[in-house]
Amino acid sequence: MTDPAAGARPGAGSEPLIRLRDVVRAFPARGGGEVRALDGVDLDVASGEILGVVGYSGAGKSTLLRLVNALDRPTSGTVTVAGREVSALSERELRTVRRDIGMIFQQFNLFSSRTVWGNVAYPLQVAGVPKAEHRRRISDLLHFVGLADKAHAHPEQLSGGQKQRVGIARALATDPQILLADEPTSALDPQTTSEVLALLRRVNEELGITIVLITHEMDVVRSLAHRVAVMEAGRVVEQGDTYDLFSRPGHPATRRFVDTLVEKGPPARALDRLRERHPGRMVTLSFREQDASPADVFAVFVERGVQFELVHGGVEDVRGRTFGHLTFTVTGADEAVADAVARVATLVEVTEHATRDDAGGNA
Asked: Residue 180: which of 142, 215, 143, 205 has the closest Cα?
């Protein structure tokens, strides 16, 4: 088990550890033609980062993982891992590459006939690691994942969270550079999910292991990932810093995912009720760290002599960085209100909600 350089920024000043270029994976379609599980994918993963790959069923996420660990080969394009184009390697050469890639699964995939110790020992046996090394390495890993007291238990004696911890220890047994996580928390309850995510964060921060996590759960991405790639119909439709995608999603697919956690404004069912209680011009202001602060906006309202009232919204946290969507009603002389809203729109993103008598949509 290796330690990362203290204070190192993931991927700083280095070539991507994983690189996909114009990758297509096509399968024969029933009745002729082909179906593209991946369709021209370009993607980089920096050494030491956690990348969350998000998409609904059929988006191509699992196919992408299978290409990275060379369990499948692209129809066209290149997949490069640690400087080696894996799609061009022989099966014998791939065994060396796969030793540097650990894998954890949604349903754990433990051997029921083996103890916890035996499950973690299995990849060491396959890799030909000398038996003299097994005891130290397995003991270290079980202490790392908090299961030293379960070494002689069988999988049926463990909780779901404990099984996933065994899966993580097994994936780390060969001291990999990369950990691929395929929906690792989908079978877990919220409390256990938090514990497993905390362990994966330690794997990244303390061991310096690069993690590629595929999921459809945006709360998992918000909690863990440095960057996000959003997939739809075999393509990466948007990618970037997790905070940026949550606070200002660009592609409709990204907005659909973010909307499962973050309300940008009052839902339609609540608008009429809010208007009945709060007269005035209703606007939602989107605040990000790089934008003006709420205090700056409030100062604009005060300077223009208009009244304002917060009626909906909240602040979100993404890996210690905050943003928020706050909905206000603004009242006063029409000209003053219009001037205030126009000025605020130069400071932060403004979404205006139509009045009850206005048939138009959002501004």
From this structure: 215
Instruction: Evaluate whether 282 touches 329 at the Cβ level (below 8 Å).
Output: yes
Per the CB < 8 A criterion, the answer to whether 267 and 261 are in contact is no
pTM of the model: 0.86
Reading the block at residue 207, the tokens are 């061991």
What does DSSP say about strands 281-287 and 349-353: parallel, antiparallel, or unpaired? antiparallel
| CA separation for the pair 308, 335 (Å, rounded) | 15
Which residues lie across from 66 on neighbouring strands? none
Domains of the chain: 18-100+176-259 (3.40.50.300), 268-353 (3.30.70.260)
Whole-number Å distance between alpha carbons of 217 and 220:
6
Mean pLDDT on 290-295:
87
Strand-by-strand arrangement of the 84-85 sheet: 34-45, 18-28, 76-81, 84-85
Q: Residues near 240 by Cβ (< 8 Å), separated by ≥ 6?
A: 227, 228
Give the chain's count of helices (H) and strands (E). 12, 14
Element housing 340 (H / E): helix 334-344
3-state secondary structure of 45: strand
| Contact by Cβ (8 Å): 241, 321 | no
Contacts of residue 123, defined as CB under 8 A and 6 or more positions apart, other chains included, come to 170, 171, 173, 174
Q: Please give the structure tokens belonging to residue 355.
A: 């009045």
Q: What is the pLDDT of residues 186-223, one digit of tens each?
A: 888 999 999 999 999 999 999 999 999 999 888 899 99
